Here is the input.
Amino acid sequence: MRVAERSHSKPGLIDVLSLGFDAINHSLWIVAIPMLLDLFLWRGPHITPLPLFQKFMDWYQASLSGAEVFAPNGQRVEELRQTAEAAAASFNMLSLLVTNFVANVPNTTAGRPADTTLVLSVGSEAGFALLFVFLELAGLALGCLYLGLIAQQVRDGRVDLRRLAAKLGSYFGSALALGLIILAVALALIVPLTGLFVASLFLGAGAVQAALGLVVTAIYFATIWALLYLFFASDAIVVSEVGATRAILLSVLVVGKNFWSSLGLILLTLLILSGTQVIWSSISYSPWGVMAGVLGNAYVASGLTAAGMLFYRSRIAGLEENGNYQQRFLRRK
Here is the structure.
């Protein structure tokens, strides 16, 4: 029996995981996308914004040259400069290909410098901004391609590249809109909280500390709840093939109606990914170990991605049979 047919039932968490890896096993070549991208980040060029950070730190030091209260002997500024330059030197801008928060391709090597002698520098603000936007959009497109392939296998039991090519633009537009909505909401929350913190600066150190604690706590809990309820939004875009706002509603509905099982799936996914990351890191002392980690991570993460889509699809199928209230949300345009 095909995975797409069996997923119409309401499987438990262990069954979902089994079905997810079964789906990937039927189209195992899909794991080549995260694997090749991971290898590219590892052995490909390293693009560093170090000259731009150095320029910024030169300006920052010059602006503090007479402010003895902030830098009485220059030591604090120098330490800040060294820290910033070390971070900038190790940051590979190509890692932006796998760091968007809507449609990611799994990876193991984005967090460390590329193992290459080809190092390119970005020294202008305009160049940095343009490259940043380009890499984010390119990464989003790659993520939509990757998720779209898995979604076809989960939903239809096979991959149809011609149909995916016709739908990829729609996936990309919806994912981009989803990212912009999340960004807009985040800014809407951060701006008033930042205003509260700035206002507290005029009320003394105690008020500043209290306001900072309030701001950090509010942002932390808002982020946790947002990540929980929007966990299936990307799945809705590629599985249900809906727009950004409807994807948000479907994700919220699935989590709200299946809260504990959704939470269990999310925690189990994070536990498996965290545990396997420890394994990949422990064997990365040699090139063969890195390659084994890249291959293993591509397979495990792809199976977990398919499992999440199967969970979403089975729960949506159950809600579609469940009265007019849900139908108002689930009716397609």
Notes: The longest strand covers residues 46-48. The mean pLDDT is 83. The two ends are 31 Å apart (CA to CA). The beta strands are 46-48, 119-121.
